[in-house]
Specification:
Helix content: 55-70%
CATH topology of the largest domain: AhpD-like
CATH architecture of the largest domain: Up-down Bundle
Oligomer: single chain
Shape: globular
CATH superfamily of the largest domain: AhpD-like
Number of domains: 2
Amino acid sequence: MPRIPVVSTKDAGPLARLVYRIARRRYGAVPEPFAVFANHRGLLYSSVVQELAAEKASRTLPAVIRELAVYRVSVRLGCTWCIDFGTMLQKHEGLDVERLRHIDDYATSPLFDRRERLALAYADAMTATPVTVTDEQVAGLEREFGRKGLVELTFQIALENQRARANSALGITDQGFTSGEACRVPLPGLG
């Protein structure tokens, strides 16, 4: 249970009700962060716009690189909601979610390739406090993914740091998306 109450559909304003309806259609349930942020209409709107814009703009990196880096941040920060929701999104992208159990061993595990290891190490360095990113690391990522890919990776990791830290601070925990209890949206291709 979050540290502050969610805003129910009946108590939500018109914008929050619209967000809830779209979220239910897309995810099968209203993500709890939306229902908590509905306590501040302006920030709910701001976060929805940012999420949709970032999703639309993030098309340079392969999905697996982007999603693994975001998932790594969730694990590092211990955001159970982000881990739950992120696993569901990866499953829907058709990515191999079984190897997520080995994410802590990415540096030596044969389940992760060189490019994935570079992105995961960058996620670790950006999530560390203080940040431990090096010039060499950035240069290597730019060589590997191009400048646009590097900026996309950096933005997505930073965005997940924001999500995970906000969710953790507000006591928002896993919602059952990976167990199917909350998410009734079928996997792509399964009808």
